[in-house]
Amino acid sequence: MLTETKTETLADPLDDVLGYQLRRAMLVTMTALTDSYEELDLKVSEAIILRFVGANPGCNQSAIGRALGVKRTNMVPIVAGLEARSLLIRPPADGRSNALFLTEAGKELLKHIQSAGDAIEQHFFGDIAPDTRNTLLELCRNVRAKAEGTFGLPGGSVNAITNP
Amino acid sequence: MLTETKTETLADPLDDVLGYQLRRAMLVTMTALTDSYEELDLKVSEAIILRFVGANPGCNQSAIGRALGVKRTNMVPIVAGLEARSLLIRPPADGRSNALFLTEAGKELLKHIQSAGDAIEQHFFGDIAPDTRNTLLELCRNVRAKAEGTFGLPGGSVNAITNP
DNA sequence: TATTGTTATACTCTATAACTATA
DNA sequence: TATAGTTATAGAGTATAACAATA
């Protein structure tokens, strides 16, 4: 006679829902990224913003916010924190906006940010065939393009980036 | 002479980072889902939990929390809210746990939840070829399987589900 | 001893409104 | 009038700690 093993396995009604499964998978990678950047004492949002400043020296924080889908009101404490840690400077560009530049410390940290990001990318997506990878990237572009479609989403709030 | 058009297009250093692009795409679909469920006066978390109860009548809220990656402490107000709205009941299963069941109203609402979810799925992923779709689902499974790999993530907090 | 439900609480990211200064 | 930076504040999701009751 078999001892009854309590199999706590719930039926998953979303098992075949691609949007849901993609989200679950993304949460895994975001958690890994969060943990990895924690060793650099950075949040994911801070790391991403540093990468953007590194790639766009002299841009202002509102432009980065638009690119990332982060409202300019929420950029304030993040950028202020990075400046307070001397990872970037923001001399006035004109009377109302500041030009962001990485400091030497910021540039040095950026290298580690990129290494950590690459490691995560490699770990989770390194075994994907190149053509599958391209298919995926195109899928992502299509999904984001559809955001302005039938569902009439406001462009600004479609795509915030920070929270795991 | 050409008038200089201010082309505010920042270089995107993450343009080719699959993890990042997948996340951006996911945020788009989650925003659409949030907006859609808003018409049913439901949060995404509430809708997902109702789907799980519908698929697993009699289960308790901690089990759902484990399946979704939501801590049982955070299940409390959500389930209590659904009970207060008479969408589910929770008679005691044994002395310490309750068995969750949808009410008739909950079952009726579940139909609309599924329709709304299907519409989002169709809108964003309806044009994907079946074999590509399967590739994607397998990719998701692989990513989640890797969470217990090198990065040694705690199984519990890997995969919360609610927040857009 | 482990599990279930619960309260209280803190932290993060996101959102809106409103203000100031400048283009 | 539109834009950039800012402050204050509210909401939602997630986190830990602690407790009582039960298995």
| Overall number of strands of chain A | 2
Strand content of chain A: under 5%
Mean pLDDT of chain A: 87
Percent helix of chain A, as a range, is: 55-70%
Compact overview of the structure:
Two copies of one chain form a homodimer. Chain A has 164 residues and is mostly helical.
Describe this structure in words.
2 copies of one chain form a homodimer. With 164 residues, chain A is mainly α. Chain A has a single domain (18-145), classed as Orthogonal Bundle (Arc Repressor Mutant, subunit A). Chain A is 57% helix and 2% strand. Chain A contains 6 helices and 2 strands. A two-stranded antiparallel sheet of chain A has the order 1-2. The longest helix of chain A is centred in the last third of the chain and has 22 residues, at 104-125. The first copy, chain A, starts with 17 loop residues before the first helix and ends in an 18-residue tail after the last helix. The interface between A and B is large, with 69 and 69 residues. Chain A binds a DNA duplex (23 and 23 nucleotides) through residues 43, 45, 60-62, 70-76, 94-98, 157, 160, 162-164.
Set down the secondary structure blueprint.
The structure is a homodimer of 164-residue chains.
Chain A: H1 18-38, H2 44-55, H3 61-68, H4 72-84, E1 88-89, E2 101-102, H5 104-125, H6 130-146
Antiparallel strand pairs in A: 1-2
Helix pairs in contact in A: 1-5, 2-5, 3-4
Chain A binds a DNA duplex (23 and 23 nucleotides) through residues 43, 45, 60-62, 70-76, 94-98, 157, 160, 162-164.
